[in-house]
Amino acid sequence: MTAPLHEPTADAAPSAAEEASLAEAGGAQAVQGRSLGRIAWERLKRDKLALTGGIVVLVLIVIAILAPAIAHLVGQDPETHHENLIDPLFSTPKGSLGGISGDHLFGVEPVSGRDVFARIVYGSRVSLLVGFLSAVVAVIIGTVLGILAGFFGGWVDAAISRVMDGLLAFPQLLFIIALVSVMPNEMLGLTGTDVRLFVMILVIGFFGWPYIGRVVRGQTLSLREREYVEAARSLGAGRLYILFKELLPNLVAPIIVYTTMMIPTNILTEAALSFLGVGVKPPTASWGQMLSSAIDYYDSDPMYMVIPGVAIFITVLAFNLFGDGVRDALDPKGSR
Amino acid sequence: MNQKSTGTQGAAAGDVLLKVNGLQKHFPIRKGMLQRQVGAVKAVDGIDFEVRSGETLGVVGESGCGKSTMGRLITRLLEPTAGTVEFEGRDITHLGVSGMRPMRRDVQMIFQDPYSSLNPRHTIGTIVGAPFRLQGVTPEGGIKKEVQRLLEVVGLNPEHYNRYPHEFSGGQRQRIGIARALALSPKLVIADEPVSALDVSIQAQVVNLLDDLQDELGLTYVIIAHDLSVVRHVSDRIAVMYLGKIVELADRSSLYRAPMHPYTKALLSAVPIPDPRRRSAKSERILLKGDVPSPIAPPSGCRFHTRCWKATRICTTQEPPLIELKPGQRVACHHPENAEDQAPQDTQLLSAAREAIELVPVGRDEAPAGQGAAAAEPATGSEGAAAEGTASGE
């Protein structure tokens, strides 16, 4: 370059030298940057509603994991019958409010007299297990296929997108009902309830992946045109490097958001399936199944219907509040 | 820094570093069920030039004229449709990802948008260190130390190693992009609109940083820009592009003093003069009418004939070759300005040519437009005034 022009450089150069000398004076203490994840966490911490939801979710997870211990603590288990507490004439629990007492915190079931508290605690295991694992299945399939569709485009994209459209148009509840009812009682070394759980997780996950797949595909389509992808290519990066080092870190936020939003939906689907009698089989406890059997007693023993209903309501609400908070925290340009 | 400059001095200044021959890039347009190709966007349509070691080639042109595509073809981010790109005598036109990898050390790119050229999820250390990791190079003293040295070279605090891009301003981000491009001590740096996304005050800083780095490291630049003041300030030679073709390629002083292609002349007449006293030296502004024609179906013959005020019959039928009309000045035009007419027999102006332009007298209401040029103008001031005088005197 021929034309020398040093006025503006004069500003820049001393400041660089100054900073360098400052750096020397500062010694080893490095300036720690705040990552986007950390900023999101700090934002989430300020969102009281989301935090409450998150705490409830944590409590639920702890309850599910420690279900036997908790039931043991109150001296009950979900499968012992207490026929002595049942009114033989109406087969409803003796006493008011479905037999709530010091021994049976949430009362007992009609007919069998099983402890409702223990069954609710054990039921959380089924709900959370199906909710989480089917979300995991959906996220894995959805992320992999979504990235492939978005990154490679062309016929790969066309094929995957048409499959997603097809699945989204499928009457999934009917399909699951049909599938679960023809399931064998034993499969892959699993028996009874475990087979039902396994199939439910796979099927709910399988019908859930297009929702995540579409989001991931769209994000990938927009991210792959960014200049930092070109920058990586101009440095000699291959496709795998670009996929895993440049694109995936930017996809984590939407994937987390959609996972937290998907879990409550899956919990509701599981409850619906159990309610319809194609979920887990009795005597294994499940909230949907309890609701289903409470229908016959809704006027004589309303508490038996209210309790599992409230359990489902609280769980889904907590997940949704938490999910909303996570979305707001990760996407500052969003609604708020 | 010293070991770097000696490293790049290997090729003696003046040797041809990059040679481009008949380079083309046509983006296919596909339609229908079978994705049949129904046409092509001729973004770059046969260009030839060479870049000598140590010089700065400026590339100017309107938006959509193919200058960014050309930059991406040279760095092989896009696959050329035809033509060849030779770097240090080696044909790199069709090398694959792995074949290109060693070449990538020598050819680097600075990107236009500092907000999208840095991955928001990576720290500055990771971004500037990526070239070493990708190329499997371990610099002396480790990657971290080298990255911090590079940050210092571009005028950033090396302690910001662990920070994320969103914590920096646009100008600082562009410096980070420059540090990344310099990491492997390249020989050739392609800068695609390196300052157009920045504030004018920051533009000058970044342009001068590039200037200083060239002196220190012996770099060769191809700088793509649409701001004529920036190009004038940084370039040794300038290529003017119109619709995927180079219409004029000349030394900076020749081009600004006596532009030969009518398009160049029109472009230069649009540069505002910040000094009102000097404004009278400039006679008038040439306003081109209409839009740039579509690169899908470029005009026959000379591509500029639809907007040229000197266009004649030959311009619609014969494509003018890019020939050297004066030492160091190559022009593709049948009826150049400031030079002998290449088709004197053809004098009948096209009817369209008579309305192709509007001449606007200069000297009123131009003050606000002056700021774009303000940054670069002072250095070239006196020379600029002389150049303008000559240009209008013809």
Q: Label the overall shape of chain A.
A: elongated
Rg of chain A: 27 Å
The secondary-structure element order of chain A is HHHHHHHEEHHHHH
Give the largest interface pair and sizes: A-B, 43 and 63 residues
Beta-strand portion of chain B reads 15-25%
**What would CATH call the architecture of chain A?**
Orthogonal Bundle
Q: What is the rounded distance between the termini of chain A?
A: 49 Å
CATH fourth-tier homologous superfamily of the largest domain in chain B: P-loop containing nucleotide triphosphate hydrolases
| Rg value of chain B | 22 Å
Keywords (chain B): ATP-binding, Nucleotide-binding, Transport
Family (chain B): Belongs to the ABC transporter superfamily.
GO molecular function (chain B): ATP binding; ATP hydrolysis activity
Pfam families (chain B): ABC_tran, oligo_HPY
